[in-house]
Structure formats: C-alpha cells, structure tokens
Amino acid sequence: MIKFAIKWAPFGGASTGELLATFGVDRWRFAQMIREALHPRAGDRRDVRALKRSLLDLLTWAWRMYPDSSASHPQR
What we know:
Layout: H1 2-8, H2 16-23, H3 27-37, H4 46-63
C-alpha cells in the first residue's frame, strides 16, 4: 500500500476508480489507511519514527490528503 502511494504521488494520487479496483476503498479511506500504516509504533526506533513522519508529510502533500478539510474528500 505504501509503495502504491509513493508510485502515484507525482500524479496527485490515484483516482477513486483505481483505488476501488486495487484496494476496494475510496480516497478518504485510503488516506486513513496510509496514516494508520505510518503511525509511529511503540517499538519504532527514533530514526524510523522520523522517516515515517517525513513520508507521511510528503504523501499528505502529494495526495492532497489534508485532515478535516474538503481536500481530503476529492471527487475524482
């Protein structure tokens, strides 16, 4: 899922149709899944936490996945 998000980042993310076909979810749910996957875990080393945080920030910007905004629910 993370590889998919990175692959589609230069294009503003995948379309809802692509996400439905690949993961069975819409963009909003996919954004949630990415946030959950990159959420720091108790056992993560400091460098891993920093990498997860940086990757999440970059993917949020690239996919326009802003929490609590209409941009996190695009109609593609």
